[in-house]
Amino acid sequence: MPECGSGGPLAASRPVPLPALTGIRFFAAFYVVLGHGLPWIENRAVLPISVSIFLRNSYIAVSLFFMLSGFILAYTYTEFSPGARSYAKFWKARFARIYPVYFFSMLLALPFQFHTLTLKSTAAVLLMVQAWNPLHPEIAGAWNYPAWSLSVEAFFYLCFPFVQMRVASMSRRAIHVLGIISLLACILFHTPAQGLGLWNPDAVAPISIPLPIVRFPEFFLGVIVGNLFLRFGPAAKQPFLTLVAALAAILCLSITKGPWVSLSVLPFAVLLYSLAGSGDAIASFLSHPFMLLLGGASYSVYLLQLPVRDWVRTLLAQTTASLNALNAPITPLVLVLFSILVFRYFEEPLRKAIRRQLDSWL
Questions:
Q1: Chain segment 261-293, per-residue pLDDT in tens
Q2: What's the DSSP call for residue 234?
Q3: Angle at CA 343, nearest 5°, toward 340 and 348?
Q4: Do the Cβ atoms of 57 and 209 come closer than 8 Å?
Q5: Nearest C-alpha neighbor of 302 from the set 9, 56, 125, 64
Q6: How far is 149 from 147, CA to CA, in rounded Å?
Q7: Helices marked H in 49-136 — which ranges?
Q8: Which of 118, 253, 287, 355 has fewest C-beta within 10 Å?
Q9: 2 confidence band (pLDDT: 50, 70, 90)
Q10: What is the pTM for the complete model shown?
Q11: How far apart are CA 342 and CA 356, in angstroms?
Q12: CA 74 – CA 353 distance, rounded (Å)
């Protein structure tokens, strides 16, 4: 989820930024927010079946985030030198990127979730391992349940240096084969649906455990696509490739139900590859400075959605009944504005400060 730029201490050379991949993050994060608001919408309007299915499938945006994370990391950290120092540089950069807002989200959620916490769940969440325990899957959603995906990301970050070193040394043929295998694993084993049953009782999920290893094919597919982009460069001039991939993803999300929504990972992969090297209208729109601001704030949009909802609901409950009734449509606007402030004045400054401090220690 938190990958939103390029450049890093272990890159062989500073890569060219891929701004469109930052801009698309906002739409993915807000898609999740809209999906969580579906019950409120359905209580007040009769939606077309395709729209209802589309919003109900919003959880699939997490798969896009996992793939995007793998792509950006592979593109940014093109080579690793074996050794603890190289790994430590990477891991401290990831910690500085994700933990400040992660911890802040827990502080905001604490007044509403304190009564649900145990010592075990509190420790697991603070250590970002809440999704790692197959014997206690209920812990994965503890405290601030969207944070389970950051626990999964933490596992990916732990593995990435070793994965990238191996993939970067492979032949093109081997990378293509691995890409096909990981794509088939995502689709046939329905990895995007794993763990969905924990939060959505109506979901059809083969396994209701969001173990990182189960979701690893999505991240690995992103790593593969990122390495392919590094080797082959942008797709041959096909001005409608991005549009076709985006429409295919929307169509898939509007007609598939249950585990077969995993089919969407194919257009997701094409979309990421196309956007990375495209100069078409869609990429230009996603690269606009305002979209880059929203894309940068998307991590907060995703992670703060439930705490902000609870705070807005609590504060509006102290007002008039008519204003209180508007808490659901007001919350997304407050969330986006608040997330921009968090990104500009908390996340980015603190990330830089933590990096400087860790640099002085390591």
A1: 999 999 999 999 999 988 889 999 999 999 999
A2: S
A3: 155
A4: no
A5: 64
A6: 5
A7: 49-56, 61-76, 84-113, 119-126
A8: 118
A9: low
A10: 0.93
A11: 20
A12: 25
Contacts of 45 by beta carbon, 8 Å cutoff, 6+ apart:
none
How is residue 24 written in tokens? 């698309």
Alpha carbon distances (Å) from 279 to 26, 152, 242, 256: 19, 32, 10, 31
What is the rounded distance in angstroms from the CA atom of residue 340 to the CA atom of residue 22?
A: 14
Q: Which residue ranges make up each domain of the chain? A: 19-361
What pLDDT shows up at residue 144? 97
Q: Tens digits of per-residue pLDDT, 55-74?
A: 999 999 999 999 999 999 99
Burial of 87 (0-12, 13-18, 19+ CB in 10 A): middle
Judge whether 48 and 115 are in contact, CB under 8 Å. no
Give the Å distances, CA to CA, from 337 to 40, 222, 257, 301, 305.
21, 30, 33, 9, 12
Residue 191's closest CA among 221, 223, 232? Answer: 221
Residue 217 half-sphere exposure, CB side, CA atoms within 13 Å?
Answer: 22
Q: What is the pLDDT of residues 214-229, one digit of tens each?
A: 999 999 999 999 999 9
For residues 164 and 150, give the distance between their C-alpha atoms in angstroms, rounded to a whole number. Answer: 20
Specify the DSSP class assigned to residue 7. Answer: -
How many other CB atoms are there within 10 angstroms of residue 25's CB atom? 29
Q: What is the largest CA-CA distance in the chain?
A: 65
